[in-house]
Specification:
Number of helices: 4
Structural class: alpha+beta
Order of helices and strands: HEHHEEEEEEH
Distance between the termini: 44 Å
Strand content: 35-45%
Shape: globular
Mean pLDDT: 90
Largest sheet: 7 strands, antiparallel
């Protein structure tokens, strides 16, 4: 049974399978050059390594977002925090966890993205659903980029 405090926080997870090795998929998230090729339409600055603060910029949203890297475990896990509308933390950050699991003798990778930390309010729900849409799009874009060299976000939002 969850505590009342845990019930006040919203979270979600999305997942998908990419036909590349776990190392390739992990690096597609951690490496700013690769991330900029399919996700951060305005570019990413800095590799996702424990203790780093990097920036992600999206042409479809104004300004670059600072992203704090809380934990990395190559090639299994990346945990970051970034600003959110209606986050429950004092600093309004949510926590995003990327988990990478090797499958089918290393030929495919399951990716699970979990984001947690919104307040349980109509505004928090709206913000969480917006980010859920974004991470689902990110997974689809990463699959298209890694497997076929196609940038799905090019022209998608503008």
């Amino acid at each position: 049974m969850s505590s009342p405090q845990e019930q006040e926080k919203l979270s979600f997870n999305v997942s998908g399978i990419i036909s590349k090795s776990v190392n390739q998929v992990y690096d597609a998230v951690a490496d700013p050059v690769q991330l900029s090729s399919y996700f951060t339409t305005g570019g990413a600055q800095g590799r996702l390594e424990t203790g780093n603060t990097v920036t992600w910029d999206f042409h479809d949203f104004p300004g670059a977002f600072p992203v704090e890297v809380i934990e990395t475990e190559y090639p299994r896990k990346i945990v970051v925090q970034w600003g959110a509308d209606k986050g429950t933390a004092e600093d309004n950050l949510t926590t995003v966890t990327f988990e990478f699991t090797s499958m089918d003798d290393g030929t495919r990778t399951k990716v699970v993205i979990t984001e947690a930390g919104w307040e349980a309010s109509p505004e928090g729900i709206k913000a969480a659903f917006g980010n859920c849409e974004g991470w689902t799009g990110m997974l689809a874009a990463m699959k298209a980029w890694l497997e076929y060299g196609i940038n799905l976000r090019d022209g998608f939002y503008k």
